[in-house]
UniProtKB/TrEMBL annotation:
Keywords, ordered alphabetically: Bacterial flagellum, Cell projection, Cilium, Flagellum
GO molecular function: cytoskeletal motor activity; structural molecule activity
Gene name per UniProt: fliE
UniProt GO BP: bacterial-type flagellum-dependent cell motility
Compartments in which it is found: Bacterial flagellum basal body
Pfam families from the UniProt entry: FliE
Family listed: Belongs to the FliE family.
Chief place of localization: other
Gene Ontology CC, one term: bacterial-type flagellum basal body
Lineage of producing organism: Bacteria, Bacillati, Actinomycetota, Actinomycetes, Micrococcales
Name listed for the protein in its UniProt record: Flagellar hook-basal body complex protein FliE
Organism: Georgenia yuyongxinii
Length: 116
């Protein structure tokens, strides 16, 4: 049975979680699988690769939004709703990225505090 703690976030956010490659992760009974560099619990890509992919998706969403903004200003855009949706997706994805970064920094700070 897969763990789906973040799956609800994807439904709530209306899709930006999908930009981060959020998917169900099968539970593992072997702690070594979690600690081995380059190996994820579900046999997929490592966390670093997933994070790099998420940043690439954020960049693509921002580029799409910028392209549609230029088309809207020049009058080449048929439906302004396309731009509004793309801009909102880019903004929400950026907010999610910033929140994840802040949580990672907080976790790192807490680990450093525990070692002192």
């Amino acid at each position: 049975m897969p763990i789906s703690g973040i799956e609800g976030l994807g439904a709530f956010m209306g899709g930006p979680a999908a930009a981060f490659g959020v998917r169900n992760v099968a539970p593992t009974s072997n702690l070594g699988d979690l600690l081995e560099p380059g190996k994820a619990a579900d046999g997929g890509a490592s966390f670093g690769v997933s994070l790099a992919s998420a940043v690439d998706n954020l960049t693509a969403a921002q580029a799409k939004s910028s392209d549609l903004a230029v088309k809207a200003v020049t009058g080449d855009l048929d439906d302004v709703h396309d731009y509004t949706i793309a801009a909102t997706e880019a903004a929400v994805t950026l907010e999610l990225t910033a929140a994840l970064r802040n949580k990672a920094v907080d976790a790192f700070t807490e680990i450093m505090r525990m070692q002192a």
